[in-house]
Amino acid sequence: MAAASIAPWDGVCNHQAINSLRAMRRGDCCLFYHSGVGAASRHIVSVVEVTREWYEEEGEAASGGAMDVRAVGEFRRLVALGKMKIGDGVRTTTTALIPA
């Protein structure tokens, strides 16, 4: 995501994740998690700010719902899901943000 650009965060299939996104409000910041194929590609890559709260997508290509986000900063190094589950992944990495 380019700096200061706004993009939809869509394609979320996990119901627990959808409920968390629905609870987010405009101005909230959150960690943007990339869930690729296989555990090696699952990382937190950046911090984003909510610019539009959860909405249901319309039309033929609709994938359910989305919320719009703006890049705040990205991590100098990726934070693996396993590190997050241990509990120290973000604490040791949040100071390593590159502003968007």
TrEMBL record:
Instruction: Cite a single Pfam family from the UniProt record.
Output: EVE
Give start-end of the signal peptide: none
Q: Which InterPro entries match?
A: 5hmC_binding (IPR052181), EVE_domain (IPR002740), PUA-like_sf (IPR015947)
Record's superkingdom? Eukaryota
Q: Where is the EVE domain?
A: 5-85
* GO CC terms of this entry: nucleus
Q: Which PANTHER family match?
A: OS03G0676100 PROTEIN (PTHR14087:SF8), THYMOCYTE NUCLEAR PROTEIN 1 (PTHR14087)
Q: What is this protein called?
A: EVE domain-containing protein
Its source organism is Oryza glumipatula
